[in-house]
């Protein structure tokens, strides 16, 4: 099976206490990520500062020797807090992330009202590493009834 990208950070920062307050302070925060066969899927929350906004994810698979940027798209309806918007992204990683030694780094960019805000995981970037999936343990075939006891009187 292909390797899996394993986050080196909590994959659901949006589930932690005080998340909306962090979005209010920093204007943009990663909400969650999930590795899928198509790439890395995730969501970002931004403070709703103006109607027009652009959210994107800048990422690299080679330690920033080169990078790419993927747009994030608005996800209606907005979160129930009334002050943030949610954007979703998919980083199409392709064959480069198929290696077990693959490494992915990314940061989120939010452009609004002539300003630019970044979420780069407190200066460390969001990092994921390739990890080979462990195949199911192969052992002798188990009889499905081996743990069942039948007692006749």
UniProtKB/TrEMBL annotation:
GO MF term (any one): protein phosphatase 1 binding
Source taxon at top rank: Eukaryota
Residues in CBM21 domain copies: 20-129
Any one GO BP annotation for this protein: regulation of glycogen biosynthetic process
InterPro entries on file: CBM21_dom, CBM21_dom_sf, PP1_regulatory_subunit_3
Signal peptide from the UniProt entry: none
Pfam families: CBM_21 (PF03370)
Record-level GO cellular component terms: protein phosphatase type 1 complex
Bilayer-spanning residue ranges: none
Protein's name according to its UniProt entry: PPR3E phosphatase
Lineage of origin: Eukaryota, Metazoa, Chordata, Craniata, Vertebrata
